[in-house]
Design brief:
With 566 residues, the chain is mainly alpha-helical. The protein is built from 22 helices and 5 strands. Belongs to the peptidase M3 family.
Length: 566
């Protein structure tokens, strides 16, 4: 019998009871006299871990679908409060695992990646910081709820932040400017509160890092992100290459856009407006997009067809923007039901399709790797996970006409140009976080000033036209990753370079590229980033020359398109 998402049962877990039962199993684990006997205990432990993950994900999903739902709001608060206690359960398990006298035999059974992840988890936690972790969780949720609470009167309507998307692409320039002022009027009204939340987050994270024996949060941040086969020096080298090779190209693309839309100076409220005839928009409503998605995935491959039908039958989508719904989009996995779940905020722009294909890439990967007996391999580390999502956006290019009809060429031009233009912004966010966490003593105003310096370096085309609080360096206030997932954002840029390689290869030999992509999805999180890239027959973004080569391919593709005629 097929159960739909609404039928997935939620019950608040008894954390103290689970902790006691895990302690008993860990004691049993230590007493076992063979790797096989210890593996049997690991399998039983994983049942507990999967159940905890299921309940926390159900609470998260249902609270983000409607932040006004009092029951799930309380359950989300519960996991914020008990998250560190759950982390302590994990910590004890990983500490015991890596101390096993049969470690080498267990590595042969489960793979070395499990033990690499376990070592990172042990380095990133100590029971003495539990209260600080609770504080960090609550601050993160406070930020999310603040942005979800937006109810802004504009154009005779009351809009949340996601619903402003179409206005950023309006053909009337004054409407675009007014919408930008209205949206950021809300952000300015809460400027001090957002600054305070972030200031508290930075100082709390710094304190956690110091308590754990690190100089500052940067080292701990890399540990939390499970960076196993690269370091901050390699990331800095990548950022330097973006500054050298990509920033000039983006400046050129913005100049093409300025001429194309016929303005004297490109302003912030023009950046999402690509064509005087209007941007590409999907034809039809939410159900039309999902139906076109189903048709597309049925044609793409046997595996994707089965996957999408699985998702549709179980109603594992919540994609429309609604009042009280949290912003953004994500994919997560519900272990006890072996179900991915896709959350987004459709708003009538081309993002509806790119978010669908992006999150479907995550969901498809987790669907393909759901057979792993190791829960840690359900998703790869985040920079690897973004390869699946971003590559899916490109692999579905041949089907974009089903969504955009006569606007298909517009969509492809905008999609590629936006992906290139994203790279400098992505690395600017990363460098900003390195500065912030290296100098936790900076005041909120000083942080915004540091952001302005990075805009001069990576986004020299940007002009806020005096609109506050953007002009005062607060653009990043709307970037949720900065608050909830420090050092995550660079992962999108690394993955984009990999995804563009899949795009190039798909143009040359689709079947070969798709075969490597399927294999990559099946590997899940069983290997670290560079090893997965190698398995997919891609070149690491950290290899000198890779970025320059990939961007040149994309530039040549865009130069073949007469964008002034679109």
């Amino acid at each position: 019998m097929v159960h739909t998402f609404s039928e997935y049962e939620y019950k608040r877990p008894d954390i103290k009871q689970i902790a006691a039962e895990v302690d008993t199993l860990l004691k049993e684990f230590k007493e076992k006299d063979s790797a096989d006997a210890q593996a049997e205990v690991i399998d039983r432990l994983n049942t507990y871990f999967n159940h905890l993950s299921t309940m926390s994900n159900l609470a998260l999903i249902r609270s983000t679908i409607d932040t006004r739902d009092e029951f799930y709001d309380k359950e989300r608060n519960f996991f914020d409060e008990y998250g560190p206690a759950i982390q302590e359960i994990d910590f004890k398990y990983y500490e015991t695992l890596i101390a096993s006298p049969y470690k080498s035999e267990l590595e042969q059974r489960y793979g070395k990646q499990l033990f690499s992840l376990a070592e990172k988890a042990v380095k990133g936690f100590d029971p003495k910081v539990k209260s600080l972790l609770q504080k960090e969780n609550k601050l993160d949720s406070e930020y999310s709820r603040l942005l979800a609470s937006a109810e802004i009167e504009f154009d005779g309507k009351v809009l949340n932040l996601s619903e402003f998307g179409p206005y950023a692409q309006h053909t009337n320039r004054q409407m675009r400017r007014s919408a930008t002022e209205a949206l950021h009027g809300f952000m300015e009204m809460h400027l001090d509160k957002i600054d305070r939340i972030y200031d508290d987050l930075v100082k709390t994270r710094h304190q956690i890092a110091v308590e754990l024996g690190y100089k500052n949060f940067i080292e701990l941040g890399y540990i939390r992100m499970n960076r196993i086969d690269y370091d901050s020096d390699m990331v800095q080298n990548f950022r330097d290459q973006v500054a050298e090779y990509v920033v000039p190209l983006v400046t050129e693309l913005k100049e093409r856009q300025r001429r194309r839309i016929g303005v004297e100076k490109l302003k912030i409220y023009d950046e999402s407006f690509d064509f005087t005839t209007g941007n590409a928009v999907p034809k039809g409503d939410t159900e039309d997009i999902l139906q076109a998605g189903e048709n597309m995935y049925l044609e793409l491959s046997k595996e994707t067809g089965e996957f999408f039908k699985f998702m549709r039958q179980r109603e594992l989508f919540d994609v429309e923007a609604k009042k009280g719904k949290e912003g953004g989009g994500y994919c997560t996995f519900i272990p006890d039901y072996s179900s991915p779940f896709i959350f987004s905020n459709f708003n009538g722009t081309l993002d509806d399709v790119t978010v669908l294909t992006h999150e479907a890439g995550h969901a498809f990967q987790s669907y393909m790797s759901s057979g792993f007996e190791v829960p840690e391999y359900q998703f790869p580390t985040l920079e690897s996970a973004e390869i699946h999502s971003m590559s899916m956006e490109y692999f579905t290019y041949p089907w974009m006409e089903q969504f955009f009809k006569e606007d298909t060429d517009k969509f492809k031009y905008t999609h590629m140009a936006d992906n290139i233009s994203f790279l400098p912004y992505g690395v600017a966010i990363d460098e900003f976080q390195h500065i912030v966490y290296a100098h936790p003593e900076l005041s909120p105003k000083e942080r915004r000033q540091e952001w302005q310096k990075l805009e001069d370096k990576y986004l020299p085309h940007r002009d806020y036209d005096g609109i506050e609080p953007l002009a005062s360096g607060a653009f990043w206030h709307k970037q949720g990753h900065v608050f909830s997932d420090p050092f995550y954002y660079i992962d999108y840029t690394l993955a984009q370079v990999c995804a563009m390689q899949f795009w190039k290869r798909a143009n040359e030999d689709f079947d070969s590229a798709w075969s490597d992509y399927i294999n990559l999805c099946r590997l899940g999180g069983s290997l670290p980033f560079n090893a997965l890239v190698e398995k997919a027959n891609l070149i690491s973004p950290f290899e000198d020359g890779c970025l320059q080569s990939v961007v040149k391919e994309a530039q040549d593709y865009l130069n073949l398109i007469d964008d002034s005629a679109l």
